[in-house]
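Colleagues,

For the teaching module next term, I've prepared a clean inverse folding example: a structure given as tokens, and then the sequence designed for it. I'd like students to try predicting residues themselves before seeing the answer, so please don't circulate the second half yet.
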């Protein structure tokens, strides 16, 4: 059995005040059912109302977070580049940079390193392979998404 290249861990430390991974026009955040339950509950809203207010559906019907009409950025990113629902943020957001698509090829990973200063930061610490795997699986589950509530 061949183990993925990141099995022995990868150095990373999210940089306070960075927010680059969220500050991306046209970025898509797929949602899991678990996300919908957690986030709507944190806002004291029925899931259906939250989906109608803060989410939209892709052409193939999967639920994603809405972006602002003015600049295409996630509706939950504040002016200070912080997440307004950080404690309850979607698992795909929490899984960055450990997205399957980022880890899939050397080219994709090099691009991710250019986009995420946390991967080359001096204070980066080793994130173990099991932790990375949990994020990869969460990202996969979110990408599959859901189409009906
Ligand atoms: S781009 Fe990387 S360092 Fe910056 S906020 Fe996102 S995860 Fe953290």
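(Answer key — instructors only)
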């Amino acid at each position: 059995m061949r183990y993925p290249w990141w099995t022995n861990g990868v150095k990373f430390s999210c940089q306070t005040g960075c927010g680059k991974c969220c500050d991306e026009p046209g970025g898509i955040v797929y949602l899991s059912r678990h996300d919908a339950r957690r986030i709507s509950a944190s806002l004291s809203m029925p899931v259906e109302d939250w989906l109608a207010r803060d989410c939209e559906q892709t052409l193939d019907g999967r639920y994603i977070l809405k972006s602002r009409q003015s600049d295409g950025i996630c509706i939950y990113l504040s002016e200070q580049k912080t997440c307004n629902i950080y404690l309850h943020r979607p698992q795909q957001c929490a899984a960055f940079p450990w997205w399957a698509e980022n880890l899939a090829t050397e080219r994709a990973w090099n691009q991710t390193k250019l986009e995420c200063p946390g991967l080359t930061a001096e204070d980066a610490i080793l994130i173990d392979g099991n932790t990375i795997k949990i994020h990869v699986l969460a990202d996969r589950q979110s990408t599959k998404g859901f189409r009906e509530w």
